[in-house]
Design goal:
The longest helix is centred in the last third of the chain and has 22 residues, at about 410-430. The chain has an 8-stranded antiparallel beta sheet with strand order 4-5-6-7-16-12-11-10, with helices on one face. A 6-stranded antiparallel beta sheet has the order 1-2-3-8-15-13, with no helix packed on it. A hairpin with a 5-residue loop joins strand 2 and strand 3 (about 50-55). The chain is α+β, with helices and mostly antiparallel strands. Helix 2 runs antiparallel to helix 13 (about 560-575), helix 6 packs antiparallel against helix 8 and helix 12 (about 520-540) packs across helix 13 (about 560-575). The chain is about 30% helix and about 20% strand. It is elongated and about 80 Å long.
C-alpha cells in the first residue's frame, strides 16, 4: 500500500497534524510541555483535551508496535518494518485511517470515568459504530469500521476505571480502514465521500491552494514559507461556541486562543491572498468589545477573558491591513472599523488616564502584551512610552479614516489629539537620550534594559530625526546573531527562557522592523529581518527563542511567529526582486 506525500515534512512533536477548520489535531502534545507515549486525538473544544489514544498494534499478538511517525500537510503515517498506518482529514470533523501489516487501537485517553469527567464508550446499533462520549469536550467521537475487523473491544458500557476502546485489524495481506468523527449528539451513519487516496489528494490540493494564495512569492530564498503557511492553515478553526468567525488560533497546542493583539499579525500575513479571512482575524476581538470600548484579553471556544486587555496596536495594524488588501475595504467596512477603533481609543483615553493626565497607563504588564518585562519591575500600574506611541498611531489612523469617510471635523479633532499625545510623550517621558516609564501612584520615573522602552520607534516617520537615531542606536544593542533580545543580554535581569526578559519574540521584531524602516533606518531594519528569517528557517516557529542560541522555546507551533515570518519574507522577496 502506498500513499502520495506532498508539502513540507514536519515533526508532530513540534507541530500538530490538523487541517483548516478543525477543532482537533493529532499530536503527542496533550498539555503544556506534556507529551504522551502515543499520538492522541486532541480536541480544543472547552479547552485542550486529549480524547483518544491511537496505538499501532501487532495484528497477531495485539501488542503495541514501535513505529516511525512522519507528517506532511495532507498525510500522517506510522511506519514499521511489518507495515504502516496512514491518517488523513476527510473534513474538519472527520479523519480516515487505513492500514496494512499493522492494526490500530483506538482507546480513551482517560482511563477513569466519573459522573463529571472522563470518557464513556459503547457500541451504537443505529449507526453500527463505536462511540466515545467526552465530558471534557462535550462531544462524541464515533468510530466506524469501513473494512477489516474490530478484533478486540474493551470497556463497552463500563463505569469507573477501565480500558475503553477497540482494535482493528485486516485479514492477512489485506487492508483495514476506519473513520473517526467528532460530532454532537447524533448524525446519519457515516458514508465515505471518496477513497482514501482521493481524500489525501483533496487535502493536498486544499493546502496547495492556500499556500499559493498567501505565499505566491516563495522561492528557495524563503525556504520556510510553506511550513509557515501550514502552521497558520492548520491552526484555523471554524466558527463555533463564542468564536464568531473563522479564527486562527495562536496554536493547536496549549496556546489555543486568540489574544487581542496576536490576531493582528495573522491578519496582515493573510491580507493579500485570503482577504476575507484576514478581515475576520482583525474583526474577531471587536465582536466582543464591551460597553467601555475595551477588547477582551482573549477569546477561545467557550471562554472570553476580560481580566486584562492588550495594547492598542490596532490602528497601526489596520493602516497596514487596508493597504495590503487586494480590494480596498468598502465604505461600510471602513465605517464599522472606524467606530470600533473610536470606542477602543476612547477606552484608553477615559478609563486608562488618571484625572488630569495626558498619557494613558497599563494596569499590569499583561496589558502591554510583554507580561513580565523588566519595565514593570518597580511598579505595575505604569505610564509607558510604547502605549503612548501606539495611541498616537491609532489616533492618526482614525484621522485618516475620518477623512476618507468625509468627516472632516472629526479628522481634525483626531489629528490634534495625536499631536497633543505625541507632544506629551516627548515632554514627559523623553529624557534627552532615552524614554522612561512613570508610576501612576508614585510619580517616579525609571528606565530599564527592556526592548519595550524602545518601542516608540513604531512612530517611524513621525519621530524627530534625532530621537529616531537615538532609539536605533539603542536597538542595535539588543541584536544577537538570532535577532532582537527583549532584554539586553548584559542585563542582570536577563533570563534565557524568561519569557519577555530576554527571549526573541516575533511581534516585537515586526513592530521594530517596521518602525525603523519608516524612520529611514533601512540597513538596520534589513539586518533585523534577515536574522529573524534565518532564525525561523533553522529553528521553526516557536512562541519565542533563546536569544543567544536560537533554540525555540515554549509552544513550538505559534501562528503569529509563522505569520511574522511570512510578512518579513514577502517584503524581502519584493525588495530583492526590484
Amino acid at each position: 500500500m502506498t500513499a502520495a506525500r506532498s508539502g513540507p515534512a514536519f515533526s508532530v512533536h513540534e507541530i500538530p497534524f490538523s487541517t483548516y477548520g478543525s477543532w482537533f489535531d493529532i499530536s503527542p502534545v496533550v498539555a503544556e510541555n506534556t507529551y504522551a507515549e502515543d499520538l492522541q486525538l486532541v480536541s480544543h473544544q472547552n479547552g485542550m483535551h486529549g480524547v483518544l489514544r491511537l496505538v499501532p498494534r501487532d495484528p497477531a499478538r495485539g501488542d503495541r508496535v514501535e513505529t516511525r511517525v512522519e507528517a506532511t500537510p495532507s498525510l500522517l503515517s506510522w511506519t514499521a518494518e511489518s507495515g504502516r498506518v496512514d491518517l488523513a482529514y476527510e473534513s474538519p470533523d472527520t479523519v480516515r485511517l487505513r492500514g496494512s501489516g499493522l492494526g490500530i487501537g483506538v482507546f480513551a485517553a482517560a482511563r477513569t470515568l466519573t459522573p463529571f469527567s472522563g470518557t464513556y464508550f459503547f457500541h451504537d446499533p443505529a449507526a453500527d459504530a463505536h462511540v466515545f462520549t467526552s465530558y471534557e469536550t462535550g462531544r462524541r467521537y464515533r468510530v466506524t469500521v469501513l473494512s477489516g475487523t474490530a478484533a478486540h473491544t474493551a470497556g463497552a458500557q463500563a463505569l469507573g476505571g477501565a480500558d475503553r476502546g477497540l482494535a482493528v485489524i485486516a485479514e492477512t495481506g489485506g487492508v483495514w480502514e476506519i473513520a473517526i468523527e467528532e460530532l454532537g449528539t447524533a448524525r446519519p451513519s457515516y458514508a465515505p465521500s471518496g477513497t482514501f487516496d482521493d481524500i489525501v489528494e483533496s487535502a493536498r490540493r486544499a493546502f496547495a491552494d492556500f499556500v499559493d494564495a498567501v505565499a505566491p512569492w516563495r522561492s528557495s530564498a524563503t525556504p520556510a514559507a510553506e511550513l509557515a503557511a501550514y502552521v497558520v492553515w492548520s491552526a484555523t478553526v471554524a466558527p463555533t461556541g463564542v468564536v464568531t468567525r473563522p479564527a486562527v488560533l495562536m496554536s493547536k497546542h496549549w496556546m489555543d486562543k486568540v489574544w487581542s493583539w496576536d490576531h493582528c499579525f495573522n491578519a496582515l500575513a493573510l491580507a493579500r491572498g485570503c482577504p476575507n479571512l484576514a478581515l475576520d482575524q482583525f474583526a474577531l476581538p471587536f465582536d466582543h468589545q464591551d460597553d467601555s470600548g475595551a477588547l477582551p484579553d482573549s477569546v477561545t471556544h467557550s471562554e472570553i477573558l476580560h481580566n486584562f486587555v492588550k495594547p492598542p496596536i490596532h490602528g497601526w495594524a489596520f493602516g497596514h491591513l487596508r493597504r495590503r488588501l487586494p480590494t480596498p475595504p468598502t465604505h461600510a467596512q471602513l465605517t464599522e472599523t472606524y467606530e470600533q477603533l473610536e470606542r477602543w481609543t476612547a477606552f484608553w483615553m477615559t478609563a486608562r488616564r488618571a484625572p488630569g493626565a495626558e498619557l494613558a497607563y497599563y494596569q499590569h504588564g499583561n496589558d502591554s502584551g510583554w507580561d513580565n518585562a523588566t519595565t514593570f519591575d518597580p511598579e505595575r500600574v505604569v505610564v509607558t512610552a510604547d502605549l503612548a506611541a501606539f495611541l498616537v498611531l491609532q489616533l492618526r489612523e482614525l484621522a485618516e479614516l475620518a477623512t476618507e469617510l468625509g468627516r472632516q471635523g472629526e479628522a481634525s479633532r483626531w489629528t490634534r489629539a495625536a499631536e497633543d499625545m505625541q507632544r506629551a510623550l516627548l515632554d514627559q517621558l523623553w529624557t534627552g537620550d532615552r524614554f522612561v516609564a512613570r508610576g501612576v501612584a508614585s510619580g517616579r520615573t525609571w528606565s530599564s534594559a527592556s526592548l519595550l522602552d524602545l518601542m516608540p520607534i513604531v512612530l517611524g516617520e513621525h519621530l524627530p530625526g534625532d530621537i529616531g537615531s537615538a532609539l536605533a542606536d539603542r536597538i542595535k544593542a539588543h541584536l544577537t546573531p538570532y535577532g532582537l533580545a527583549t532584554e539586553l543580554t548584559s542585563s542582570s535581569h536577563y533570563l534565557s527562557d524568561g519569557y519577555w526578559r530576554g527571549p526573541i519574540w516575533a511581534p516585537a521584531t515586526v513592530l521594530v522592523e517596521d518602525g525603523l524602516r519608516r524612520a529611514g533606518h533601512h540597513r538596520l531594519a534589513d539586518d533585523i529581518s534577515a536574522r529573524f528569517r534565518a532564525l525561523c528557517e533553522s529553528h521553526g516557529f516557536a512562541e519565542n527563542y533563546d536569544a543567544l542560541t536560537g533554540t525555540g522555546l515554549r509552544d513550538r507551533a505559534y501562528t503569529w511567529t509563522a505569520s511574522s515570518y511570512l510578512l518579513l519574507a514577502e517584503a524581502h522577496a519584493h525588495r530583492d526582486g526590484r
